[in-house]
TrEMBL record:
UniProt cross-references to Pfam families, sorted A to Z: Ax_dynein_light (PF10211)
Similarity comment text for this entry: Belongs to the inner dynein arm light chain family.
Gene Ontology MF terms in the entry: dynein heavy chain binding
Keyword tags: Coiled coil, Dynein, Motor protein
UniProt-recorded name of the protein: Inner dynein arm light chain, axonemal
Coiled-coil annotated residue ranges, if any: 152-222
GO cellular component, one term: dynein complex
Source taxon at top rank: Eukaryota
InterPro entries assigned to the protein according to its UniProt record, in alphabetical order: Axonemal_dynein_light_chain
Length: 225
């Protein structure tokens, strides 16, 4: 019978739910109950039959610890867990390894195992809190980035609008400058024309005055009859 998934935690052979667990001694019943409360049995259905698998209550030897360490290293490499940073695979495997260490300690000393259980749960809660904080910071950063992008778009629209207004004003300035130049040119032409006309009128009046003077002098110098 194949269990639903491999784990670094050591389990006994799976059994049908209809049968009783074999291999346990009466003196270890309390220890098994504690183990089952710490690491609940795994259950799965295959071919319409419900199977259950309990954690092993066999005391661990030094060789078991060495095998556990080797299995951990092998699975880390096999599943390509990252050595640094956040890695769910590495977190899962180390959690399984810690659970089996708790199992081994609980078999020899239940109180020590329960204390390790408290430590494990506290670590998990702290990790979950940090994860929540990290996700919140990521969400906050994303909101800030979106707001910045939105403000950037608004500023770009404002800049484009101001550029358009500037172009319109520059166009108006150009038109007004052209009108001023045209008016100044026309005014200059008018003044020049007035000066020419004034000069001509003065010259005409001078000529007329000379003629009148000559006529008057001629009349005055004529002999009396």
């Amino acid at each position: 019978m194949i269990p639903p998934h491999n784990s670094l935690v050591k389990y006994d052979n799976p059994i049908l739910v209809a049968t009783t667990k074999n291999g346990g001694q009466a003196s270890s019943t309390q220890t098994e109950d504690i183990l089952n409360s710490i690491l609940p049995p795994r259950e799965w259905t295959e071919d319409g039959q419900l199977w259950v698998q309990y954690v092993s209550s066999t005391p661990a030897t030094r060789l078991d610890v060495i095998n556990l360490q080797e299995s951990l290293d092998h699975k880390l490499q096999q599943r390509q867990a990252r050595e640094t940073g956040i890695c769910p695979i590495r977190e899962e495997l180390y959690s399984q390894c810690f659970d089996d260490v708790i199992r081994q300690v609980t078999i020899n000393c239940a109180e020590r195992g329960l204390l390790l259980l408290r430590v494990r749960d506290e670590i998990r809660m702290t990790t979950a809190a940090y994860q929540t904080l990290y996700e919140s910071s990521i969400a906050f950063g994303m909101r800030k980035a979106l707001m910045s992008e939105q403000k950037k778009g608004e500023m770009e629209n404002t800049i484009r609008s101001l550029d358009s207004d500037t172009e319109d004003l520059e166009h108006q300035v150009g038109e007004l400058s052209k009108r001023i130049e045209d008016i100044q040119a026309k005014e200059k032409e008018r003044r020049e024309a007035d000066e020419v006309a004034h000069t001509a009128e003065v010259d005409r009046l001078k000529g007329l005055n000379e003629q009148l003077k000559a006529s008057l002098e001629g009349l005055l110098s004529a002999p009396k009859k």
